[in-house]
Each structure stands twice: as structure tokens, then as C-alpha cells.
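Follow-up to my earlier ticket, as requested here are the two runs.
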Amino acid sequence: MAKKIKKKKTSSARKRLNLKLTKQQKILFGSFLILFGTALLLSFISYLFSWQADQSQYGDLSRSAETQNWLSKFGANAGNFFIYKGFGIASFIIAFLIILSGIYYFMNYERKNLLKNWIWGLVLIIWL
């Protein structure tokens, strides 16, 4: 009879990639989305008041450039990209959808309703 030889698993064997987030990762990702969405919302609001004064500063990356936007250069460039070159006032919906996604991840809600909100939000953006 032939002996059965047991093969040891080597470290070179590939592990499967796991895309599920842990609870800590969901909280961190949700917090990031809430903060990023709030930053976008503030930059859009400020852009409506200061777009004329900041118009010459778009794309200028020098430290000496002064903007009147509440979030400085980031806010001015984000507002210009989304509102002036992008979707206009409908860009506020994007900020709200990002904040809503952050809340869903942070609170660990069921994401089926989140998908429905994103679909209706995108339809509303296209309609506007």
C-alpha cells in the first residue's frame, strides 16, 4: 500500500479577498462620509455667496491665493466643479446623498433603502 503524504499549506497559498467591512470599519467609513458630505454642503452654500470674488482663484494652487469661501480653496474649487461646471443647484442632492450614506454606514442600517434613495436622488438630479 502506498503511504499518504500530507501536504503542508505554505504561506504562498492565496487567501480569498474579503470585502465585508467590520463594525469598526463601518463606523470609520460612515464618519468619513458624513464629514465629507458636510464639507461639500458648506462649500456649496458658501459658493453661492462668494463665487464672483473667488472666480480668479479657481485652479490656483499657490499658498498666497486668498478665497472668500468658507472652506478656502477646497470649497471654492469643489463649488466651481459641482455647481458651475456640473449639475448646478442639483449638486446639493449629491451632498445630501453622501451624508445619508454616511449615516446608514455609521448606524448600520439596512442598505436596501439607501439604494432606493440614491436611485431617486439621481433621477431628481437628472430631472433638475
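Run two:
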Amino acid sequence: MRMAIDLSTILKPFENKWVALSEDYGKVLESGKSLKEVVEKCKKRECRNPIYFKVVAFDMAILPRSA
């Protein structure tokens, strides 16, 4: 069974930005205002298997919605 990962500590400085996370979710590889910016930065740095993620405001909740 996989354990839940608490990303709040590493993502707090990147509130309202896009980030590229490492494969193990342990660190932020790149960040920027847009996904395009972060993807370009990762391509230049040759990041290995980045996980792209939009960090929303910490006082906001996102709920799934059915169609």
C-alpha cells in the first residue's frame, strides 16, 4: 500500500504557479506562471520524467465533478 505524500511544505512557496515535480514527488524541479514556461525550462534542463502540477491557493478547495 502506498502512503499519502504531504506536498504542502515543498509547494507552499509556489502557490498559484505551475511546477514540475521530481518522479518521487520529493522536490520541485522548475516553476513558472504557465505550464508552457515550466515545460520549456524542463526541456532545457533535461528533467527526467517531470510531473507537471498547478499549485492552487492553499485557502482553496478543488472538488471533482461528474459530467
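The only thing I checked on run two: Residues 11-54 form one domain. Let me know what else you need.
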